[in-house]
Amino acid sequence: MMNAQRQPGATMTREQILAALSALSDELGKRGVTGEVCRFGGTVMVLAFTARLATKDVDALFQPTQIIRELARRIADEQHLPANWLNDGVKGFVSARHETTTGNLPQFPHLRLTMPVPEYLLAMKCMAARVGGTTDEPSDVADILFLIRHLKLKSAKDVLDLVGHYYPANQISVKTQYLVEGLFEEGQI
C-alpha cells in the first residue's frame, strides 16, 4: 500500500532526516551490511552546520548502492517521504579531489556518514550557483554566504581560488564568477 507522498517543494527537517537515516541503518543491520553515505548540499547544512532548518532531499553518494537504493524507497513509503528522498543526483558535481570527513555528523551502528570538507562543499555550491528566483526554485546563495563566513574568506579571489583548487578553471562558469564577485561587491560578506 502506498502512503501519501509529500507535496513538491516540501522540505525535510533535521528530525525527519535523522529518523530516515536511523531506519536505513536498522535495515542494513538486519541484512548484516554496513553502509556508507557521503552527504552533500542542504543535508550537510542542516545536520553538520545547523545553518538552516530543512532541505528538500538528501543528496548523497552511497555504498552498497543497490541495497541502499532499495531500502531508501521502502523507507520513503513508510515515512511518507518523496521516493527520491535519498538520491545520487549530485554525481555530476563531484570533484576529482573528493575530500571528505565525518565532521560532527551523527553516526549509526550500520551506517557511516561522511561529508565534503567545508572548502569542497563551498566549491560545489559555487559550481552549482543556483540563485533561485521564486520560492520553489532552489538557491545556493545563503549556503555560499554561510560557508564563506565559516571559512573566513576575505575576497572573491579567495573564494574563486578555492573553487579552482577543486575544479579545472575551464569548468568554472561565468555565472559562478559573477555570483561570487557580486556577493562581495554588494557587501553581503
Walk me through what this model shows:
With 189 residues, the protein is an alpha/beta fold. It has two domains: 11-116; 118-189, no CATH class. It is 43% helix and 13% strand. The protein contains seven helices and seven strands. Strands 5-4-2-7-6 form a five-stranded mixed sheet. A two-stranded antiparallel sheet has the order 1-3. Helix 3 (65-78) links the parallel strand 4 (58-63) and strand 5. Helix 4 (118-128) packs antiparallel against helix 5 (141-150) and helix 6 (156-166) packs antiparallel against helix 7 (174-185). The protein is elongated. Residues 1-8 have low confidence and may be disordered.
SSE order and pairing:
Blueprint lengths: L11 E2 H17 L4 E5 L1 H7 L6 E2 L2 E6 L1 H14 L7 E2 L12 E2 L9 E6 L1 H11 L12 H10 L5 H11 L7 H12 L4
Parallel strand pairs: 2-7, 4-5
Antiparallel strand pairs: 1-3, 2-4, 6-7
Helix pairs in contact: 1-3, 4-5, 4-6, 6-7
Mind summarizing the main beta sheet?
5 strands, mixed
- Alpha carbon gyration radius: 17 Å
What fraction of the residues are assigned to beta strands by DSSP? Answer: 5-15%
Mean pLDDT: 90
Low-confidence stretches: 1-8
Report how far apart the termini are: 50 Å
Question: Number of helix segments?
Answer: 7
Number of domains: 2
Helix/strand structural class: alpha/beta
Portion in helices: 40-55%
> Biggest sheet, strands in spatial order?
5-4-2-7-6
